[in-house]
Amino acid sequence: MTTPATLSYAIELDRQDTLAHFRERFVIDDPDLIYMDGNSLGRLPRATEQLATELVRQQWGARLIRGWGESWFSAPERIGAKIAQLIGAEPDEVIMTDSTSVALFKLIVAALRAQQGRNRILSDDMNFPSDLYIIQGIIELLDKGHRLEVVPSPDGIHGPAAEIRAHLDEQTALLTLSHAAFKSGYVYAMKEMTEAAHAVGALVLWDLSHAVGAMPIQVREANVDLAVGCTYKYLNGGPGSPAFLYIRRDLQERLNNPITGWMGQRNLFDFSLDYQPAEGIRHFITSSPPIISLSLVEPGVDLLLEAGMEKLRAKSLQQSAYLLELWRQELEPLGFSLKSPLDEKYRGSHISLGHPEALRIDQALIHEFNVIPDFRAPDNIRLGLTPLYTSFRDIYHTVMRLKQIVVEKVYENYSLEAPIIT
């Protein structure tokens, strides 16, 4: 049966949506704005807005330094334990730390030091570029003969899973991949890839940034060694909110934090001049946590736990199927290509559509049609489906406005020069 490309059908889907009420839990300043970029920066939860005031006025303003003993010091572990529930980890295996890049640096250096005699680091060209930049910098810093090998995707959409498995050997120290690719949304089979790396003695580090909060993840079940993830996308933690890292429990004493600091010291207040790492994952903290931005991650995580990741994933798949059906009917005849996997098993929670005029179409959506997606070079328009607040009506109107922009050639009014932020 063909999905009706009508507004009334989208309204009916919203009426049937058991998660629709979560939309009211977010600040929506402009009800006419269609926000399709939650895969890049999540909306502001109302509870976060309230907490921000309480943090500044009460916890900081009134309680002053007493806040450290009351809730601040334990915040990295407390919030980490909640995120652990989203990724299938034990509570003491996840902790909030620095930015994603710094967390990656720490884990990669720790992994390479633990893998003496192995010099290959394996990744793919679907990985987030910053991850590769960090590896390149580490190789230069360590100067131990390590080399990075980047396996190309066969089509720019799907990860080169078979090719990576073929490249794994006894010299591979580390395999590091994005669980969900940032451009296409391709999702690796985490357990199978991890098992393949372990079969040759390699450690595995997953970047969960485009997957956590969008789909159920089971790092324990997959026997994952290491992982990092940002908190400002599907976790709705706010711009620049700190990242989390995961270290499987049996590796926590084996791996050493390469950026040792006071907050990772075993006895903070004996002020010894010799560093002794704290037990467990806490020794991967370096400096004082950014308490305000860190604390503001918690309400978004609580919303996800309340909704349930299985239910959120089911809605995400229903919405992506709806979007793909509208694409087939309305956009494919106009030259829009699909830049995401068709098979939902290998698809995250954003859909990329390609078009020769993607950049200018993207600008028309933002500046004239009140829709915010994002653009990724060379020709990807990414449409984020964030089930806590994306409606089926949002999807319908986005597709119809894309169609109007191309049919009426509205994009011709916009420059071919890309703005700084796309």
Automatic annotation (TrEMBL):
MF annotations from Gene Ontology: kynureninase activity; pyridoxal phosphate binding
EC top class named in words: hydrolase
Pfam family, one: KYNU_C
Recorded metabolic or biological pathway in which this protein acts: Cofactor biosynthesis; NAD(+) biosynthesis; quinolinate from L-kynurenine: step 2/3; Amino-acid degradation; L-kynurenine degradation; L-alanine and anthranilate from L-kynurenine: step 1/1
N6-(pyridoxal phosphate)lysine: residues bearing it: K233
EC number: 3.7.1.3
InterPro entries listed in its UniProt record: Kynureninase, PyrdxlP-dep_Trfase, PyrdxlP-dep_Trfase_major, PyrdxlP-dep_Trfase_small
Cofactor names: pyridoxal 5'-phosphate
Keyword Lyase: no
GO biological process terms on file: anthranilate metabolic process; L-kynurenine catabolic process; L-tryptophan catabolic process to kynurenine; NAD+ biosynthetic process; quinolinate biosynthetic process
Family membership noted in the UniProt record: Belongs to the kynureninase family.
Described purpose of this protein according to its UniProt entry: Catalyzes the cleavage of L-kynurenine (L-Kyn) and L-3-hydroxykynurenine (L-3OHKyn) into anthranilic acid (AA) and 3-hydroxyanthranilic acid (3-OHAA), respectively.
Name by which UniProt lists this protein: Kynureninase
Gene name in the database record: kynU
